[in-house]
Every structure is written in C-alpha cells, then in structure tokens.
Amino acid sequence: MIRWMGSLMAKHIPNQQISVFGFDCDLNPGPWNPKEHALILVAFWGSSYTAGGLGPLSAMELYYGKKMGTGWAILFLMTTQLLGYGFAGLYRDVLVRPPQIYYPGVLPIVSLLNAMHRDPSTTSNIMRFFWVVAVGAFVYGWLPSLVWPMLGSLPLLCWAGAGNWKAFLMGSGTYGFGLFDVSLDWNYISFFAPLYTPLWANANRFAGAAFVCWLVYPIMYFVDASGSQRFPAMSTDTWDESGDKYNISFILNPDSTLNHTALALYSAPYWSGSYAMHFFWGFAASTAIIVFAILHHGKLIFASLWSNRHLKRSDDSDPYVQLMAHAPRVPHSWYIALLVTCLAVAIAQLYGGEMQLPWWGLLLIAGISAVFTLPSGILFGIANMQISVENLSELIAGTLFAGKPMAVLTCMVYGRQILAQCLNMVSDLKFAFYMKIPERHVFYAQVYGTMLGPFVNYACMRLIIESQGPEMLTDNPSGAWAAPRTRNYYSLSVIWGILGPKTIFGTDSPYRWIILGLVVGPAFVFLWWALRKRLGPTRKCVDHINPVIILNGAASFPIFPTTNLMTSFLVALFFMGYVYRYFPAWWSKCNYVLGAGLDCGTQMVQLAVLLVINLPGITMPYWWGNDPVAVDRCFPPEGLPSKF
C-alpha cells in the first residue's frame, strides 16, 4: 500500500513549494524512491508496536477495578515506549556500527524494498513471487483463523492415543506438552522466525524448549513433583491448594493490601510445575547474559567503547559506515534530552496515575534495564533473539514494593519496555544503514511514529474492554478474546505484588528453589566457557552452543502454547539448513521475500478477521473442524489428575 500510494503521489501532486511555520517545503521533490519508502516504514513501526503498558493497564482495570484517567494512561503508554530510545542513542556505536552485529530480523524488509524499487525488468519475477505468496497466505489464512481452526494444531500423538490421559497431555499443543503436534497455521509456524533467524540460534532455542517441554515438565507432572498433578500441566494461572483458581479477593483488604489472617485461612498460592520452572529459567537467563557478554563478547565491547572514546574506530572501513559518513549524526545531547524529558513525564505520571511506585523505583528499574541493554543488544543483533529482564524486574520490585501490585506491574512494564524499545530503535538504525538513510531522519521518524502509537493503542484497548470485557475473563485459552498477556500480568501481580518474594521464596515455600536460577545461569555459562577453553582448536562442536539462548528457549514455555514448537523448528531446519546449503542461489534470491510474503498475507487476514468477524460479534457455526469443546479434537479424557 505504501508503495502504491507513494508512486501515485509522486505522479499527481504538483511540484511546488509551500511554507509551513516559516519552513519552505517541496510538495513533490522528485521520484518516489526506496529511502522515502523505508523512512515511512520506520515511522510505521514506531506507531505499530503494541504498547507494553496495555497489559498492566488492562489487568488493573479488569482484575482490580482500577481505571486510570485517559490522559495519564496515554502518558504511561508513551513513556514506556520512548524511554528506551534515550538509552539506544547512547549505545548505538556499539550496537549499530559493527558489521558483525547485522540484525537478521530486518533483512527480509531490506530484500523486499530492494526488489520493489530496482529496475522492473530485473525484479518483476521476484515481485510476482512475493504477491503470489502474500495473496496465497491471505486466502489460506481464513481457514485456520476462522473456518477450520483445527489446522492450527494437529495433535497426532493425542489422536493416536485417544482416551489415554498421558497421550492427551504429551500430545496436546493447547493444554499439554505438544509432542508431535503439527501446525499448518503460519501464526504458529512463524514462532521461531524460521526464514531469517540463523539456524544455529534456532537450534539452541529449540534445544532448550524441547528439553523442558518434552522431558523435564512431563517428568515433573507424572511423578507429581511439587504437587503438579493438582493443576493443569502448562497453566500460567495461580491456584489454591484444592486445585481451583486462586481468588485474590479472599486475601485482600479493601485498600488492595494483603490480609495475612485471610491468607492463612484460605490458601497459599500454587503454580503448575511448568510455570514454576519458567521463573527458574527466566532468572537463569537474565544473569547468564551478563556473564556471557563479558566472557564471549568482552573484546568487541571493549574495542567499540575504546574506539568511540578516542574517535578512532576499527569499523570505519565497513562499506555502510563509509556511505553514511557524509550525513550528520544525531548528537548524544538529543538522546539525553529525550531520556531526561521522558523520565520527568514518567515520574509525574506515577503520582498522577496513582501507580504506587515512587520516583526512585523508576530510576532503579531504568538503570537495571540500561545495564542489560548492551549484552541483550549484541545477542539480538547476531541471533535475532531478545533476553528480557522482566523476571528480574519482578523479583526486585516485589522485594521493594511488596503489597503494592500497581507498583510491581509498573516496574515490570518499564523494565521490559525500556530494553525492548531500545533494541527496536537500534534495529531500525541498522535498517537505515542498509537503506542508506541519514541518522537524523530516522530519529525524527521513530519519535514521531512512536508518539502516535499510544493514542491508537489506548483507543483499541478501550473498545475491546468495553465490548468484550466479560469474555476476556473466561477460562477458554483458545478464545478470540482470551487475552493471555493480561491474564499473565494479573498472575504476576498476585505473585510479586500482593504476596511478594518473601512469601513465595520463604523457607516454608515449595518454590524456594526457584531463586537458585540466579546462580545456575552464570554457572552454566562458566561451564560452557571452560569447555571451549579446554578443547582449544577442536572446539568447533561447542562454538555454536549458546547457553543464554538455550535458557531463553526453556523460559518461553508455558507462556506460549507448545503448538508453536515442533513445526516452526522443522521449517527453520528446512529453509535455513537444507535449502540454504543445497539451493543457495534460490535461497539468496527468494528466501527473505518468501518470509515477507507469508508475514504480509497472514497479518492482513488477521486484521480482516478482527474487523469483519470479531468486532461485530459474528461467530463461525460449529462443525467437525471447529468443535467448541476442543478445536483440535484432542478431547480431555476421563482419569485426568487435574482440571482442564
């Protein structure tokens, strides 16, 4: 659409100057070109990122009945999206300029834009290929998204062992461990970004995920470790000791503080074994990445910082750096001004929006995120994967602000979003390097687009909550309005905000071992590093092992359904392994364009289903491929130890 609109405007808008606030502007300065196209995309990305604050805002309203004023809510969303940009500017020389940090996630868009704007005589075939794929994905996407949802999850093991509760748990990708669960829905298949994430990175992530989902979690459940059989195997909810959903209202005072007497009379909170392990792996990954960055990337970090300090860089010979050398850079003072302004607005919002978080808590979380930005950015730049500090933020916030769920939710979202938005910005800057766009233009586009996004995000949230609020609180995890992220934020607010780490990890808690993940992560990295040193020149078999990505893969579940797991990796293995090796010419020409086409068509059908079907409340008639009890026809059998 952007391409067509740009070409149409370049053809029909008159070429004349106008004055806007004293600045002369050309309405039509020249032909529509790839730099303009790319810059519009940068602004679009800034506005289209789903604001991380939506989860906490919706959880506060749906579960705690705390509806924030519109102005404060929009400021909350805006500051969570913009704060990370300030840190990104300070780290850009380390995370953008080095050629070995190449950001594989932006390569499909670069390939597509180059194909769109080159000589049509040389790119007509590849553009025809893109449109065939995109239209095909759009037409087919209506089947798994609406007409035949069973295509999203084909639990072969569950079907083969119909009636056997162990086969149900092992094979179900919705409720269980997802072994041999095949998906024909690109929404699930794209989980590993299989057409552009390096195969070595996906292999590490898959290894961690498969190890826990197909070995550790089943063993924990079948031997009833920590009472796992009282709860659904892959649930992210909080439960009471009888196996019912934890009713937070039973232990709260009218001012939303913890009533210790009621807690003793009711029940301590419990989790499924898989959800408890999720926190263990998350803690391990968050500390492991710091140690990994020092041991494995220490020379790169030191060289970049040293070169920047002495104005003499080792990457000046990089062709993209040379091409961009003539364009004025964004001064560090701009990023510092943006950072200070956002911090001031965020602090004002904390008190105006009654978030329960003091100013120094925000500064602490922002500082922690800044420390993790560098190692996380390097991993993102070479492996297309981000390591979140959300779990660590939860632990720190829960320790400092126990009994204040709003404060904990606020810490969680700032801790995660500052890091995520910082990485989004450096990724956009690398994309601009590839497209040869001056850095200042990228800065304007990013900030402009990001400031628009919160208004649209908040309007959509209000529309959905007011029309689908009761549906969002139902227990159907596959429903169109199930809101798993909102449910997850509520569970986290109970765990860290109402009860706090002292209750969860106390000496009498069955989950006191989870905190050991903070030590296990660095220990795992040290063992890997020592093994590499020990093997010396024969260490090729170990070089592609990345302990941080393995831990990150393990921490991904049960947050995501296990339907994502098997098919996504098989597709990655085929395209990034087999096709890359045996058909390199086709791969270099078509692989990224194929991924862009599949993403484009699938996203368009999701938008169409939302606007045409879900919002008007239209429901698809039930039939064999759309069973209301189990969409994937993996029916819960009799004899299940826990409720589903």
Automatic annotation (TrEMBL):
GO terms for biological process: protein transport. The keyword Membrane applies. One of its GO terms (molecular function) is oligopeptide transmembrane transporter activity. It comes from the Eukaryota. It is found in: Membrane. InterPro entries: Oligpept_transpt, OPT. The chain crosses the membrane at residues 69-88, 100-117, 129-147, 167-186, 206-223, 275-295, 334-353, 359-383, 443-465, 511-531, 566-583, 604-624. Pfam families: OPT. Keywords: Membrane, Peptide transport, Protein transport, Transmembrane, Transmembrane helix, Transport. GO terms for cellular component: membrane. It is a multi-pass membrane protein. NCBIfam families: OPT_sfam. Belongs to the oligopeptide OPT transporter family. This is OPT oligopeptide transporter protein-domain-containing protein. It comes from Heterodermia speciosa.
